[in-house]
Amino acid sequence: MIASLAPLATPAPIPAHPARTEAPAVNDDINVLALVKGKERYIFLYDDSQKAEALRMLGRHAANPELSFSWYDAAVLGKKIRHEGSSRSNARFTVPQSSDIDE
After folding, report:
1. How far apart are the C-alpha atoms of 52 and 49, rounded to whole Å?
2. Cβ–Cβ < 8 Å for 39, 24
3. DSSP string spanning 36-77?
4. pLDDT tens digits for range 58-102
5. What is the pTM of this model?
């Protein structure tokens, strides 16, 4: 007796270029704030959505008596964090206008 075998199902062809899903626009900008005090270096990295956490971190560092990071340092850097968004609208580099160049 000969048993008949059903043909194996063939897999669906794999497309040459799989469908790509568009990722939502992401702001990859990372803000860098640095302070050098003697041999210590304080570098804070944060994105625009983390400004409040960055300000809290400045306070934690200022409250730590083992660090030379002072409340004055926290105030100065905090001001830079708070005003970062407003200065972002300005050009990063300015090109001198022809009227600015002495002839």
Report:
1. 8
2. no
3. EETTEEEEEEE-GGGHHHHHHHHHHHHH-TTS---HHHHHHH
4. 999 999 999 999 999 999 999 999 987 655 555 455 666 666 565
5. 0.56
